[in-house]
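Morning!

This is the sequence you dropped in the shared folder:
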Amino acid sequence: MKRLATTLWVNLLLTYLSFAQQKAVVSGKITDLASELPLIGATIVLDSTSGEISDADGAFLIKAPPGKHILDFNYVGYKPKRFVVDLTPNDTTYLNVGMETEIQMLDEVVVSAGKYEQKISDVIVSMDIIKADKIATNITSTLETVINQTPGIDVLDGQPRIRGGSGYSYGAGSRVLVLVDDLPLLSPDAGDVKWDYLPVENISQVEIIKGASSVLYGSSALNGIINVRTAYPGNKPVTKISFLSGFYMDPERSELIWWDHRPAFSGASVFHSRKAGNLDLVCSYHGFQDAGYREFEYERRNRINLNLLYRNKKVNGLSYGINSNGMIVDKSDFFLWQDADSGAYRQNVSAAPKLNGSRLNIDPFIEYFNEKGGRHTLKTRYFRIINEFKEAADKNNESSLYYGEYKYHKSFRKPVDLSLGASASYADITAQLYGNHTSFNASAYSQFDAEMYKRLTVSLGLRFEVYRLDDYQEYAKPVLRAGLNYHMAKYTFVRASFGQGYRFPSIAEKYTATSLSSVHIFPNPDLNSEYGWSMELGIKQGIKVKSMNGFLDVSLFQSRYHDMIEFAFDVYKPDSVLIPTLDDVGFKALNVENARITGVEIELGGEGSVFSLPLTLLAGYTYLYPVNPDYDSSNTGSSSPDKILKYRYQHSAKVDLELEWKRLSTGFCLIYNSFMKNVDEVFTNPVTGNMILPGYPEYREQNQTGTVVYDHRLSFRLTDHAKISIIAKNLFNREYIGRPGDIGAPRNITGQLSVYF
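The structure's back. Tokens below.
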């Protein structure tokens, strides 16, 4: 028996060794066909059964028995590729796989939806992408202009609102989280967006999520996120130099003219990117000055941006680097007009303090992609803001933010994607305006996406967070995110999602005590956090007509918010005062109401050619029904006698079209907003309204119509390396108003010369 057993083991071993010796090997490298850069994490499937994932150099290796085999190569945003190989025993076949990017709009690659690369058609939420080309064609010095042209989003006096999720909070707090390269960039004290600080000259694309995104991004993502992704170098060095100059024309009402000479603005930017061995380098400079179309309003700024990435030569899959951005600014903002007639573009000097400021962020990061497809990422940020007011030292403030986030992501073959992460931030604020404070946040989150049944993808996410402000500590309720995406047909995608969110009040909302002209703002240390959720049902239909491809996207959505923070006008006298005076009348941030916002949004996008002329189109319509379900007609503080929420447009339509002919291209952007039905009653009341904003009650009564703003642009390629452009903003010189006392810019013309190397 022992001899028989030994004989069987020997035969089995010889058979195995013989089979092993006959195994063949397929190896190779997967790259982007145009740039020749490696594609990390591409999937390689052998005979529709087993497969591998390419490593940090795009390399792969698969063992297979001799014979004919089919190899399928797939990567998000690229056309699938198939090879048929005939393998001989003990042989090694090498494949150099160059993959082409998809040109379909449904195949645009985004990162923000799940914190890893996905096709926009596969995500569970509504998303929009703003490409660098669109930013360039609009000849804008700040990203806020292009954000405002996106369907479902508007920017009211610097504050972004997605689908009516915010009203107006006087520059303090934001329910939309703005990020740069996945890291938050709201100011640590006021929690607002510094639009002039975002590097418009160094952007690859902007990704916008519509709806609660706190599971992945935490506080301030209650209404959605705007993620600015900076550019990266290709195989060839790129240098771009741009000069712009423009001026404001006279408004339609001649009595609004306060200048002797038309106010002008000008700017310049330089961008350079290159690869030097294992080092990626991107750097840019931006300078801009604007005399302002409103009296005592001006801005002068200079900004430098530098991004470095190094791929380690010794450790495969290891890369690290540092991104940085710095700016100095000298400016004065506009707050309230003098009156609705000749003083609509004028303001009191006391309400327009002059600011000298500086902003700086330094972002070290490290990433490791292991052989099994796991990706470890550690990103950190130091963000410093200093504001010094020339004639109002009591408003000086400075703040520092220290932020770090670790994320682990792995793609399995099912396909299944798993993301785990943790983040922490610490802020130190020194301010005479609202005192000295410190805050600390810590959180942990998880995100799971899997193809459960054929074309059905399921997404689940969970987050825990703790927040500490000075000696006060608060634990955020655990928030959940869940969604489905069903690939119903070849170009048809149905999605459904539910997401919870929260926002801790900013330090400025809780502690600001100041006066601006005749307006007083009072602190509220007892202010509570906001909570809410949003859900959506949508369908994205791909469209292909001859040489045009695009999409039609329709979504139904609803959002609910609890303990919403709004600045409410009232008498806030101290307990020690018996009889209030005008000094006790003003605004204070309160948890004043709940909100329910229901709506529908339709978007149509396309690119290709019509009559052999290249064309791109993005159009959208958004309808909102924003109400307070706890409406009390006896105590609203609103100008409207019903439950419509304040500072919302119920109807909004936006169209952007670009057409090319040989060296000439032309395009336009049209924005329509319906009449803002509800604002603070204090502004519309004949007594208080004329005290704070002289003439506004009558102005509002006489202008109860929607507004249309039309921009037209034209550009001509002088050579393959130079282009001249011109844009007329508010071409028809329409007078329009956002928040009370803030009339928009009259017609203005901008010209730009761009040179490429």
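Headline: The domain at 21-99 is CATH 2.60.40.10 (Immunoglobulin-like).

More detail when I'm at my desk.
O.
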